[in-house]
């Protein structure tokens, strides 16, 4: 399952030096934490914000 997630991340136009193992953790860690600890609602909007925030930090930077 982790390899499938990493394969999908490769298609997301990430920085060449992005660590895909860390990227998977960045995406799923906050969602899993919210679900396990019940710290707030786990909504599609929240999940979308997590994805956009994580991918935004993993995309290549313009010089």
TrEMBL record:
InterPro entries: Tet_transcr_reg_TetR-rel_C_sf (IPR036271), TetR_C (IPR011075)
Swiss-Prot/TrEMBL keywords: Transcription, Transcription regulation
Organism: Plantactinospora soyae
Statement: the UniProt record of this protein carries the keyword Secreted: no
Gene3D superfamilies cross-referenced by the UniProt entry: Tetracycline Repressor, domain 2
Keyword Transcription found: yes
Protein name as catalogued: Tetracyclin repressor-like C-terminal domain-containing protein
Source domain of life: Bacteria
Span of domain Tetracyclin repressor-like C-terminal: 13-53
């Amino acid at each position: 399952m982790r390899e499938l997630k990493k394969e999908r991340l490769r298609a997301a136009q990430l920085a060449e030096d992005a660590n895909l193992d860390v990227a998977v953790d960045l995406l799923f860690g906050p969602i899993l934490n919210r679900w396990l600890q019940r710290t707030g609602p786990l909504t599609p909007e929240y999940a979308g914000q997590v994805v956009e925030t994580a991918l935004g930090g993993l995309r290549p930077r313009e010089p």
